[in-house]
Amino acid sequence: MTRILAADPAAIAKAAAILQEGGLVAMPTETVYGLAANALDGRAVAKVYAAKGRPQFNPLIAHFGDAPSAVQHAEFDARAHLLAQKFWPGPLTLVLPRQASSAISTLATAGLDTIAIRVPAHRVAQQLIRACGFPLVAPSANPSTGLSPTTPLHVARGLGAAVDMILAAGPCAIGLESTVIDLSGPDAVLLRPGAITVQQIEDVLQQKILSATKDHGHKSPGMMEKHYAPRVPLRLKAVDVAPGEALLAFGSLRFMGLRGGGAAADLPESRLRNLSESGDLHEAAANLFAMLHDLDRPEHSAIAIMDIPESGLGIAINDRLRRGAVGI
Ligand code: TXA
Ligand code: MG
C-alpha cells in the first residue's frame, strides 16, 4: 500500500530521506503532481521511467529550489536570465544547453546535450527540494500517455505501489503542466503550451516565439502525439451529446441538447461535469484533469467536450485535449 501523507514537516523530512536512498516520492507542484527522484542518481531515475512505463528517449525536467542552483547544470544566456527572473518560481520550464560538468544523470536528459529545468512555486515542492539538497527530476506522476494527476488520489490510482510515498497537499492550483520553451538555439521555440502564455514570454524577450508543432522541423522528444489520454475516447467541439456519452461542458449548458431529445443539463451527475460554468479558463484548467478522471468510466462510450476558445490558457487546454483525443 502506497503511503499517502499530509505534507507536514515530518512527512517532508521522511520524503527527503526516501529520495536520498534512491526511492520515489510523488510531490505536489502548482501545475500537477510530479513523480520525484534524485536527479543525480541514475538508478533512481531509471525507477521513474519504469514506474511510468515511459519511453527512455523522453527526457525529464530537473527541478531546483532557485535559479542560482540551476546555473551549474545549464548554460543561461541573457534570455534565460530574463525569463527566470520574471517567471521563477513558477510554471515555466526552460530547455538550455547542458553544462558539460553537470552531475545530473544522463538518463534523465536521455543523452541529449540540452537539459530542461524549472523552479516550482509550490511551498511543499520548495521545502522538499531544500530538504534534499539535490535537484529532483519529476515528470507528471501518471502512467505514460495517461491523464495527468492533479490530486493525491489520481497518483495512487495510476501508479500504486510503484511510488514509495505520496506527499499530499490537495488539488493543484493550475492543473496543467508547465509551459516548455527551448532556448538552446538562437530561436526561442515553444515545445509545450502552459499557464505562462507565448504572449507573456514574447513581451519579456521582445522576440517572436516559434511553435514546435507549426514551424519547421523542431521537435521535443516528448511531443509524441498521443498523450494525456483517458481510456474512454474524447470527442471534441461537441454541440450535442450522443446516447451513452458523458459530457464535459464549458460555460452555459443552455443550448446543449441530447441527441434524440432532452437537455444536457438533465444528465445524471455521473455523466456530467462543467469545467467552468462562468467560462473562466483558469478555473477550467484547474478542473480539466480531475474531471476527465471522473468521467473516464467504461460505461461511457465517449466523453463529448464542448468547444473551448483558443486563446490565453485555452491554447494549453486545447493542446492537452487534442492529444488526448488521438487514436491508439
Ligand atoms: O509542470 C510540469 O512541468 C510537471 C511538474 C511535475 O513539474 N512536470 C512535467 O514533466 O510535466 P514531464 O516529464 O511530464 O514533461 C516534460 C516535458 C516532456 O515533453 C519532455 O519531452 C520535455 O519536457 N523535455 C524534457 N527535457 C527536454 C529536452 N532536453 N529537450 C526538449 N524537451 C525536453
Ligand atoms: Mg507528463
Could you characterize what this model shows?
The chain is of the alpha/beta class and about 325 residues long. Helix 1 crosses helix 5. The longest helix has 15 residues. The radius of gyration is 20 Å and the shape is globular.
Characteristic terms for this protein:
328 residues; alpha/beta; four-stranded parallel sheet; binds threonylcarbamoyladenylate; binds magnesium ion
Characterize this entry briefly.
With 328 residues, this protein is of the alpha/beta class. The protein has helices at residues 9-20, 42-52, 67-70, 78-87, 123-132, 152-159, 198-205, 281-295, 313-325; strands at residues 3-6, 25-27, 34-38, 61-63, 92-97, 114-118, 136-137, 165-168, 179-182, 188-192, 209-211, 234-235, 240-241, 246-249, 257-258, 272-274, 303-305. The protein has nine helices and 17 strands.
Instruction: Look at the structure and give the mean pLDDT.
Output: 93
- Nearest-angstrom radius of gyration? 20 Å
Q: Helix segment count?
A: 9
Summing up helix and strand content along with how strands pair, one would put the structural category as alpha/beta
**Largest sheet data:** 11 strands, mixed
What strand order characterises the main sheet? 1-8-2-3-7-4-6-5-9-10-11
What's the helix-strand series? Answer: EHEEHEHHEEHEHEEEHEEEEEEHEH
Span of the ends, CA to CA: 31 Å
Q: Estimate the strand proportion.
A: 15-25%
Number of strands: 17
Overall 3D shape: globular
Bound small molecules, by name, code or SMILES, are: threonylcarbamoyladenylate, magnesium ion
